[in-house]
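Subject: for your reference before the review

Hello V.,

The reviewers asked for a structural picture of the protein, and I figured it would be easier to keep everything in one thread rather than splitting it across files. Below is the amino acid sequence we used in the manuscript, unchanged from the supplementary table.
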Amino acid sequence: MADPTIPQPASPIRKRRRFRRLLTAVIVLTVLVVAGVIAVRIVLGGDLPRRIIVDRLQRATGLSVEVAEARVGWRGRTVLKDVVFRLPLDSQPLAAAPLIEVLHSPVHQIVASGDPGLQEISIMGASVDIREDHRGRWSPARAVSLVQAARQGTSQGSGPPLIPTLNISNSTVNVSRSGQAPVVLALVLKGQPIDAVSYAIDVMIGDSHLVGRVSTTDLDHAIEVKTANIEPLVKLFAGDVPSPIVIDATWDGSWNAGLAGELSIKTIRIGEGAATGRVSVSLQSGAMTARPVLLTISSPRLSRSPLTLSGGSVRLDSMAAIVESTRIQLPNLMTELSGEWRFGPRTGDASMTWTGREHERRLVHQGKARLNATLPSTGPRTITAVVDSSGNTPEQSWRTQAKLEVTGLNWRNLRGAVEFPVLLVSDAEGPMDFSGLRAEALAKFPAISLTSLHLPGVRDLNASARFDMESQQWSLDASTASLALPRLAINPSVAVRASGDLERVEDFDVKAAIGERIVSAQGSYIPSRARPLAAHVELRSPIPPSADKVVSTHSGAAASLDIEGDVQPLSLHARGVLAAKDVKLRGRALTPIEIGISIDATREGVVFELPTFPICGGTAAVAGAFDARTNMIAARVRAESIDLKSAV
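And here is what came back from the structure prediction:
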C-alpha cells in the first residue's frame, strides 16, 4: 500500500485538465486584452475624446470651447484641430488655433492613474483677439475673471498638477477698439515650468520683448518689458503721438478680481520726451487707476527742466478721466492738480494751486486757477479760466486776477480774449494800477495773432503780434501817441518792434519821444550768451535855455551807448559818448563837447565814469556812484586849466 505522505505523480488525465484550464485562461485574457485594445482604439478614434476634451476645457476655463477634431495617440500624443475659445454669449472668437499638439502620458498610464501627465503643449498659427466692448471692458480681463471663477469652483485635489512646457508659434495678436482699424502683431511665446505652478516666459509681440515669470495659481507675475515699433498700437488709445516710442520697464503685479501692481520705469521715450520712475497701477471693473509714486518727466516742449509727479491718482474708465490731488514739481515750482474730463458730453473742469520760489531772483509767488471746457464733436467749443496770483521780489510785488475765454469750431480756428480785472504792481515808490488791461487774439493754426489791445490810460494804441506754434517764432509791433507815466509826469509817444522765439528776443527796436527829445534802442536778448543783453541806445535832446538867458542853445545834446549784460538779475555795462554842440555862453559859441562815458549798473546801484575830456581850454574828469539803497549820489570831479574867461 502506498504511503499517503509521499506525493504521487499526476495521472495523464489530470495533467491534460490543468493544461486546458491554463490555455483557456490565456485565451480569454488575450481576447479581453485584444477587445480592450480594440475598444480603446474605437473610443480614441471616435468622437468621445473630442467631447471629453471640450467638456474639460469649458469647465477649466469658463469659456465656450469648440474643437473640430481630436486625435488621441496611444503613446501620449494628442492633436486638436480648429480649436476656438469664445467668451460666453460672444459671437466673435477670443482665440482660435488651427492646430494644437499635446504631449502627455501614454493612455494606459492615464487609465491606471487618472493623471494625464501633461508634458508639452504646442500651439501653431493661433489668432488672439484683444478688443474693447461697448461698456469699455477688455476681452483679456473678462477671460481671466472667468478662468479664476472656474478654478475656484473646481476641486484641485491634494496638490497642484504639474504644468507642461508651452510653445506658441506663427501666431498673431489682433488689438481693436470700436470705430478703429485693428492692429495686428506677430506672437511667439515660450513657457518653461519653474516649479509645479510657475512659468518662466519669453514672449515676442511684434518687435517687443517680454521676459519674466507667471504663477498659474494666483497669477502673480513679474515681467521685464522692452518695446519697439509700438506707435500703431499706442495710436489706438492716444491718437497721433510723437515717435519714436520706446519702453524699458519692469512690471510686478498680481490678479485678484482685477490687475494690480507697480511699474518700475527705466525709461519711456515718446518723441523728444522721456520719463523714469515708479507708478502704482490697478485695473478693475473696466477702470484703470494710476498713482505716481515718483515719476520724472522731461520734455523740451513742456519745460527746460524735468518735472516730477507724485501723490494723488489718475483714474480712467469708459465714462471719465479723473485726476485727484496729483503734485507736479519743477525746480522752482510746486503745483497740485485736480480735475475731471467726461467723455460722453465732452466737458471737463480742473483746478490748480501753485507756489514758487526762485532763489537767484529772490522771487516768491503763489496762485490758483480754475478751468472749464466744453468741447463737443460738432458745434462751438469753449474754454474759460480764472487765474489769481500774487508775488514779490525785494524790489516790487504784484497781485493779478485774469479771465480767459477761448471759443471756436475747431482747434485750428479759435478766438480768444484775456482780461485783467485786477493788475496791481507796487515798488518802493508806491502802487501802479493797470487793472482793466484787455487783449483779443485770433488763432488760425499754426499762427496766433493779436487783434486788439486795450491799456488803461493809453490813447491811439495800435498793436499787432503773431506767434507761430510750429516754429515757435513770435513778433510784436506796437505804437501809441501817448503813454501815461504818472511817476515821471510825462506822456511820451512810444513805438516797439520785436521778434524772437520762446527762449530769446532775437531783435528789438524801441523808440520814445516827447517833442524833440528822442530815445531809441536796438538790440537782442539771448540767454545762452555770457551777457544776454546787447543793445545800442541813442539819445537826442535840446538843451533848454536858462531863465537868466546866460546860456542859450540852437541844437542840443546827444548820447550814444553800447550796453551789454543781463536784467535778471540786473547787471549792465555801458560804454559810449556824450556830446553837446551849439552851446553858447553869453552869446558866444563854445567848442563842441564830446565826453566818453562808462556805466556799470546792478541791483545795488550805478557806478559811472567820465574819463578826461577837454573843456574851455582845459580838461576835466568825473567819477561817481549812485547807491540804490540810500538813494544817494556821490561824485568826484577833477578839472585842470579851465579858463571860463575865455568862454565869456
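For the response letter, the relevant points are probably these. The mean pLDDT is 83. DSSP finds five helices and 41 strands in the chain.

Happy to draft the paragraph if you're swamped.

O.
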